[in-house]
Specification:
Blueprint: H1 3-17, H2 20-38, H3 49-73, H4 76-90, H5 99-113, H6 121-131, H7 138-149
Helix pairs in contact: 1-2, 2-3, 2-4, 3-4, 5-6, 5-7, 6-7
Length: 150
């Protein structure tokens, strides 16, 4: 089932169960999907799975950034809303890699590319971000690659 149809089904379930946090997050996802589908130059119709993954990853990143801001400002009420939405959105993302799994995958990419030092960071990051999309955050990938190449 395509993400859009799954979200529609889940919205109905959340409405019936009166789960406001879940409903808010699902409506936000649906809104992002609709905006992406109607954007200028869009292929028209359903999004490709990799585009859906990018949308969801971006939504989680935005909410994490907001949560960090709310945490520093002491806004517990808004922080809890963001964390609840993150939990809902992450259910539609692939399982995140553990630190050890990420390190192993990055070492394999580094070996395949033939990277030897910090000057090869760009080559490794280009491949790593594509291959590990949705499985690890960009910040985590970048930090680990820098650590492995130094």
């Amino acid at each position: 089932m395509a993400l859009k149809q799954q979200i529609d089904t889940d919205i109905k379930e959340a409405m019936k169960a009166k789960e406001q946090d879940r409903l808010r997050a699902l409506r936000a996802i649906k809104s992002l999907i609709l905006l992406e589908e109607t954007k200028d130059g869009a292929a028209g119709g359903d999004l490709k799975p990799e585009d859906e993954l990018k949308l969801l990853t971006k939504a989680v990143k935005q909410r994490r950034d907001s949560a960090d801001i709310y945490r520093t400002q002491g806004r517990e009420d808004l922080l809890q809303n963001e964390l609840a939405e993150i939990a809902v959105i992450e259910k539609y993302l692939p399982q995140q890699l553990s630190e050890d799994e990420l390190k192993t995958r990055l070492q394999a990419i580094i070996a395949r590319v033939g990277a030897t030092g910090p000057s090869d960071l760009g080559k490794v990051m280009g491949i790593a971000t594509k291959e590990l999309a949705g499985q690890a955050e960009g910040k985590a990938i970048s930090a680990m690659v820098k650590n492995l190449l130094s």
